[in-house]
Automatic annotation (TrEMBL):
<keyword id="KW-0547">Nucleotide-binding</keyword>
<keyword id="KW-0808">Transferase</keyword>
<dbReference type="GO" id="GO:0005524">
    <property type="term" value="F:ATP binding"/>
</dbReference>
<keyword id="KW-0067">ATP-binding</keyword>
<dbReference type="GO" id="GO:0036431">
    <property type="term" value="F:dCMP kinase activity"/>
</dbReference>
<dbReference type="InterPro" id="IPR011994">
    <property type="entry name" value="Cytidylate_kinase_dom"/>
</dbReference>
<keyword id="KW-0418">Kinase</keyword>
<dbReference type="Pfam" id="PF13189">
    <property type="entry name" value="Cytidylate_kin2"/>
</dbReference>
<protein>
    <recommendedName>
        <fullName>(d)CMP kinase</fullName>
        <ecNumber>2.7.4.25</ecNumber>
    </recommendedName>
</protein>
<dbReference type="GO" id="GO:0036430">
    <property type="term" value="F:CMP kinase activity"/>
</dbReference>
<dbReference type="InterPro" id="IPR027417">
    <property type="entry name" value="P-loop_NTPase"/>
</dbReference>
Amino acid sequence: MKRELITIAGSLGSGKSSTAKAVAQALGYRHFSSGDLFRKIAAERGESVEATNISAEAQKDIDYQVDELLQKMGKEEDRLVIDSRMAWHWMPESFRVFLFLDLDPAAERVFQDVLNKTRVSEHGQSLEEVRASIERRFASEQKRYMALYGVNPTDPKNFDLVIDTKNNSLDSVVQTVLEKYNAWRVDEIRA
């Protein structure tokens, strides 16, 4: 059964958080970012997000803490938009969106955010450093989620909608998500 839940996953730098916030605002839904929670955990540990990702490979409780909260939210809440790598897995009755962005433009976006100080959880003195950090985080996340849950969090087959954000503005991505979500909900009502 479909529910009033939208889960947005995606490549690093693809615009997950910005999209999720805008979609939630347009629908009057609550927004939750598991990335913000993960950044909070990293700060509490006195580590960078990348270091916490690497730590999570051995310390499974880091991912379990985030995933248990997502599972609880999925059982108890509706009218919610979540940006998260794994919420689609814990909430199969949600409208599942994946935002894709190739590594080079992702690194450019993230580096611009670092320079503009709008992304405080990332560090890097150069585009190359940011690119290398993104590659390491991606590899760590792929390894962890396969080991923990036996899933590939970037497989397009897991999602109802996949959008390449490279040549799409935030407004057009948000509009596409809203249109497809509304069509998805109408299909449930008809069924």
